[in-house]
């Protein structure tokens, strides 16, 4: 199978996971308990060893093949959509590697339940919010931008106006979801206390 076809196949698996994952984080707008209920339901599927192994293999394949495809096609890249696809893909590759390593490290080394508090802790120990707010915001925007670019190339030859509209909608939805999730982790909608074992990983109390 060609590298691009492999990249697309693993993108399909990751997209299903990522959209459910984003929906899970949007559930936190209704409060941390709701987020926890949704997460424990989803975990029954993605924490199955076979599913988790597939997911981790896809993360590795997606990030490495994505970086390779971007570097290989660097000089032939023309136009704003092509550059948006490259930039969002590179950020996602960086984010996926750091994010998944942090989750696995948090579980294996700190023995933490990597739930909502694990993701939100950085927002509640200064000055880490200045790292985590753009880090998560850009991840969600990049996900929707990257998927929007793929949709754009699918539609471009048959429906050029539809292609532009689809990309704009994906960017708008991505920015809105990113803002809501980031604000929610900062405690803007439903205030919560982050347990000290999570804050301690950032030197907090
Ligand atoms: C604001 C955005 C995000 C937050 C707050 C967040 C938070 C989390 C948390 C708390 C976990 C641990 C889940 C568990 O223990 O059950 C996790 C796992 C994971 N996340 Fe995210 N995530 C975000 C965005 C993303 C995006 C955009 C992607 C993919 C493009 C992604 C991919 C993953 C993967 C692959 C795992 C590992 C699942 C596993 O093997 O257990 N995340 N994330």
Topology:
Layout: H1 3-26, H2 32-46, H3 49-72, H4 80-108, H5 116-120, H6 129-155, H7 160-185, H8 196-199
Helix pairs in contact: 1-2, 1-3, 3-4, 4-6, 6-7
Protoporphyrin IX containing FE binds at residues 18, 21, 25, 39, 43, 46, 52, 55-56, 59, 92, 96, 99-100, 103, 114, 118-119, 136, 139-140, 143, 181.
Describe the structure.
The chain is an all-alpha fold and 205 residues long. The protein has eight helices and no strands. The protein has helices at 3-26, 32-46, 49-72, 80-108, 116-120, 129-155, 160-185, 196-199. The chain is globular. The termini are far apart. 27% of the residues are buried. The site of protoporphyrin IX containing FE (HEM) has 23 residues, from α1, α2, α3, α4 and α5. Protoporphyrin IX containing FE is lined by residues 18, 21, 25, 39, 43, 46, 52, 55-56, 59, 92, 96, 99-100, 103, 114, 118-119, 136, 139-140, 143, 181.
What is the structural class?
A: mainly alpha
**Shape call:** globular
Q: What proportion strand?
A: under 5%
In angstroms, what is the radius of gyration?
18 Å
Give me the number of helical elements: 8
How many strands, which pairing sense, and closed or not: the largest β-sheet?
none
Bound molecules: protoporphyrin IX containing FE
The number of strands is 0
Mean pLDDT: 96
The helix content, as a percent range, equals over 70%
Secondary-structure element string: HHHHHHHH
Total domain units:
1
Model regions low in confidence, pLDDT < 50 over at least 5 residues: none
Termini separation = 51 Å
